[in-house]
Structures are given as C-alpha cells and as structure tokens.
Amino acid sequence: MTSGAKAGNDQLSNPVGFETHDHANCINAAVAAAEVHCTRQGLRFTPVRRKALEILLQEHRALGAYEMLDRLRDAGFGSQPPVAYRALDFLVANGFAHKIERLNAFIACAHPGASHSPAFMICRLCDSVAEAHSAPARGALGEAARTAGFRIEGTMVEAVGLCPNCAQKAQA
Q1: What are the DSSP calls for 64-123, one per residue?
Q2: Cα separation of 26 and 167, whole Å?
Q3: I want to staple 83 with a disulfide (CB 3.0 to 4.6 A). Which of 40, 76, 78, 127 is the partner?
Q4: Are the C-beta atoms of residues 49 and 90 closer than 8 Å to each other?
Q5: What is the CA angle 108-116-41, rounded to 5?
Q6: What is the CA radius of gyration of the chain?
C-alpha cells in the first residue's frame, strides 16, 4: 500500500462531523471537489445543485427535503418540491450527499469521490451526524453474506446515540 493510499484510508476511518474544524475551508473544499468531479464526468453542476450542496455543508446535521426547499426558496430558487428533490437526487447519485433513512433527511458526504461504505453516528438529542467508514464485508455481516452466497455491493450503517457535546451535557 502506498503512503497516499494509507493516508486516504486513515482519512476514511476518522469520523467527520463532531470535531471542531475550519468550517469555511470545509465548505469551499467540498464545493471545489464537486466542481472538479462534475467537469471531469461531464455533469451539470447547476446553480441550484451547487446551492443545495452548500446548504448541506453549512451544518453537520441532516436536513429534510422540505427544509432544503425552504432554504433554496430563500436563496431565490423556486418553491416547488421537485426543485429540492432533483438537486438532492443529483447530489446523492453522484456521491456528494447521503440519505439518512432514520431521519428521512440528507447530509453532505464527508468523503466525496471516495469509494466507501458510510457509517453514520446520529445524536438522538441534537440530530448532529458524523460520518465514518465501515467495512461490512470484513465483519459479521460479511461472513453472513458469504455463508449465504450473497455479494454485498453497498451498505449504510446508522447508529443512534449521543454526540460528544450532548454526552458531556448529560453527565453534568
């Protein structure tokens, strides 16, 4: 394994979402990566898709489609539900966002462009979400799949608990 590959794997193993970081840089880097990906793939990164990604990146919590629609409307992008759903569908289909089934909401991908199986840690009190990488093919699920002759193509793990801030408040 090259040092670059190892660094990439280390980056995937660290959860993204609960730690303090340069949030403006986080947003700018993710939008720039999306622009590069879309250009390389010949995809249209329209103003509404860009704004939807920026909105998802503003907070490390999942947003529902109607909250996204409200924010897009406030930014001047129409008020019909298909506006939000089409933008979100594009972001999910191209790996820039994920749908959190438990919350029926969407979150920006913390590792855009990386082939990974996301694991989400969802705070039950504040709904903040952190994304980490999971390796289901190596664990109990992978063993069960092999035993059944099933080939896993993708998974999404959603764990519910307390984020560091809420856990600290709960102990006080």
Answers
A1: -HHHHHHHHHHTTS-S-HHHHHHHHHHHHHTTSEEEEGGGTEEEE-SSTTS--EEEEEEE
A2: 25
A3: 78
A4: yes
A5: 70
A6: 17
105: left (phi over 0), alpha (psi -120 to 50) or beta: beta
CB 126 within 8 A of CB 109: no
Q: What is the distance, to the nearest Å, from the Cα of residue 108 to the centroid of all Cα atoms in its chain?
A: 4
Looking at 1.10.10.410, 1.10.10.10, 3.40.190.10, 1.20.1250.20, the CATH number of the domain 3-171 comes to 1.10.10.10
Q: Distance between alpha carbon 56 and the CA centroid of its chain, in Å? A: 9
153 vs 66, residue with greater confidence: 66
Instruction: Identify the bridge partners of residue 117 per DSSP, sorted by sequence position.
Output: 134
Give the pLDDT confidence of 59-113 residue by residue, as tens digits: 767 899 999 999 999 999 988 889 999 999 999 999 899 999 989 999 998 777 6
How far is residue 65's CA from residue 45's CA, in Å, rounded to a whole number?
19
Going by the DSSP 8-state scheme, the letter that residue 129 receives in this structure is E
Predicted pLDDT at 5: 35
The answer on pLDDT for 3 being more than 90 is: no
Measured over the CA atoms of residue 68, residue 105, residue 161 and residue 14, the dihedral's sign is negative
Mean pLDDT value of segment 112-127: 82
For the chain, which residues make up each domain, given as ranges?
Answer: 3-171
